[in-house]
Each structure stands twice: as C-alpha cells, then as structure tokens.
Task: structure prediction
Amino acid sequence: MTKIAIVTLGCPKNEVYSEYMLGVLSNSNYEFVDDPIKAEVVIVNTCSFITSAKQEALETILQLASLKNSPYLIVTGCMVQQHGKELIEELPEVSAFIGTEALTRLPDVIEKILNGQRVFDVPGYEEILPELPRFAQDKKPYAYLKISEGCNNCCTYCTIPSIKGPYRSRPMEYIVKEARELAESGIKELILVAQDTTAYGIDIYGEYRLPTLLCSLAQIPELYWLRILYTYPERITPELIEVMATEPKVVPYLDIPLQHISEDILRRMGRPGTGTIGIKVIEDLRRSIPELALRSTFIVGFPGEEEKDFQLLLDFLSSTKIDWVGAFKFSPEEGTIASELPNQVEEEIKEERYQLLMLYQQSITRACNERWLGQKMKVLIDGKSVGRSFRQAPEVDGLIYLNKSNVPLGSIVTAKLTHVYEDYDFKAEIEM
Ligand code: SF4
Result:
C-alpha cells in the first residue's frame, strides 16, 4: 500500500479540506502516515491569505523536497488556486498541483505521478459544492464544519474572493449528514466555519439560513456544543440572536471579525458602516445573552490609519471589553485595492501599534476571565488534564488546566475555576 502523509497549513477551513482529501483517499488502497519521512507521497495543503503564509508554504515544500526518502510531492490549497501556473516553473520538485475543486480526482493524480507523470489540475469553481467523504486522522472531541465556500464581500485588503471564488453554500442536507456522522464518531463539539458563516443560504435558498441550520444540527443527539466563527456584523440578525439565546446546544459565544472601528478606515477597507453596526449588534447580543463570550479580530496599520484612528480602536476595546482578540499588521497583498492605496503605514509603526493593542487587550482579557472565577463550568476534555468551557474556542482562545489527568478525552465534566493563569488560561478543580 502506498504511504501518504498530508501537511496542512493555514486556517481551520484548510483542516476540513485535508480531512476531505483523506476521505476521498480512504476508499482506495492507501495507508496514511503522520510523518512525511515515512511517506511515498506527501500532499501539502497550502494557505495564501497573506505573504507570510505563502513564504511558509514555499519553505515547507522545499524542506519536504529535501527529505532523504524523496517523497512525491502534491501541492494543493489556496496558493495553487492563486499562483498555480507560476508555481509549475518555480517548483520542479513538485509532481502535481491540484486545485481545491479537483480533490475528487486525487486517486487518479496519485496513480499518474507514481507512473512518472507530472500533473497540473486546477479547474474553475463548481456551481454546487459536491458531497465529500471525510476522514479525521487525529482524535479530537471537536471538529470544524465548513458550511460554504468563497465570499461575496469586497474587503479591499483580502485575496480570498479571488482565490475561493463567489459565495457557495453547501446544501443543508450534506452539512447535517456530515455532522451526524462526526457526532456518531464521538465528536462532541462542532465549530461552524466559512469565510462568512452569516451569509449561509443566501445563494441557494434566497435567504439567510444559518438560524435554521443551527436548529437542524441541534437535533443531533450525540452533539453537545455548536459554535459559530467568522460572522459578518451586518448579518447577525435578530433570528440568529434568538436561536443563540434559546437553543441550549448553541454556545453563548460568537466570533465577529470587526477589523477596525474607525469609520474612515472601515470605508477604505470596503466595510462601510460595519463599525457602528458592530457596536449595536454587540449591545443586542449582550442584552439577549448576558453570559456571551466574544471574539474579534483587528487589522492595525491599514493605509491612512492615523493616531486618532488607532486611539479610537483602543478606546473601543476598553469600553466594549471583548473577551478574546486577535490582531494582524496590515499586509499589502498583490492584486488587492488596499495594496495600491496612498498613505501606506511604515512597518515600524505597524509593529508598535500591534504590540500596544495586544498589551492593551491582555489586561482586558484577564479582567473578563476573572469575572468567572469561582464559577462551576461544564468543561469539554480536549487532552490530558486540559479542556475548554463554552467561553473558549479551540486553538485560538485560552485553556482550562484541570487538577486530574485521568479523565477520558471527550468527557464533559463540571469544574470550579480557581485561578486565572497567565491572563489567558484557567486552573480548575473537577467536581466529583
Ligand atoms: S469577509 Fe473575510 S473572506 Fe470575505 S472578503 Fe472580507 S476578509 Fe475576505
């Protein structure tokens, strides 16, 4: 059996894509190995969102090409969608480049390269996303559930619409079937992801159907938690807030990437009015869901960002007290409107503002965490004596370190939060 390894770079959506590739291959005569050094074929699933992600992808490919077992390399993912043609010349070490919409042809591609052929298969976007088998290699009690592909928003700094194409919702029956299979395989928490989860359904049902989808998913008996990431402020509707407030499986947690709060900057970002709407939506959410945990993401150093704009952002953070915040320094991406805008900010100033924002937010996150000290929380066990409550999304928010290590993975325990640990994490005692 041919040994295959997959190296996944980038965001949770790419993790799901890798599991689809494993799903497509699991029907054929292959053996999956974790370590590329043991593989005959290595698939590199790339990210291309920003320049540093492309550099990481190229370094990873060249490192794999220099392995002494000289595995056949297949490169896929966003970097192939965006730069496929250039990469053929640049990377002679690679045996095949396949686009994200060609993954069902992966077994054929592998047979061809094992017979010495070089393959380039990067088709355009499929109207309707196909139903795909999924295979999870590592055993985690949570999984990401991709509900759509592409994006119709026009953020001026973003390459995603040019890489992933227009917004295409997955048919609800495909999503619910996949969710049921994941839950039956032991998954307790599903995290809904997309470029914009709140636009779900508008293309194939003519209306926003995220609330309906959540209610369908909540019918799956084995599921414990449903979590929503990547929402777009103006599409957080009263219907969505209602479902979040009343459906017990939908955790009181929301990720709303606001990117900035200065209306001047948001206009330049191609996100006019989303700051004012964002503030209103957060008020509405907190009125209906007082225990809500919020996550957001911001870009500092966007072209034209002056001290007063940055100060507006800091003031917003200290008045709104968002639980978890991620930040990026603006990166002028080739082919985006923002890369051509005047008044580009110096790297030094970007770095200064990035450091200051994260420092500012560190004490806010600590204060938000301290409000929960002494509380008894339901904790999903993610690993040896570590877990998360509804307030923490995996891989991006803090963790809860428990006083016992023999609790099975995927168990849900009640634990009392005793300490905030290094601002972001907790220590807790399991209730027996
Ligand atoms: S919503 Fe997100 S994925 Fe879509 S264009 Fe804006 S930043 Fe890019």
User: Anything to note?
Assistant: Residues 151, 153, 155, 158, 160-161, 195-196 surround iron/sulfur cluster (CB under 6 Å). The CA atoms of residues 150 and 166 lie 5 Å apart. The mean pLDDT is 95.
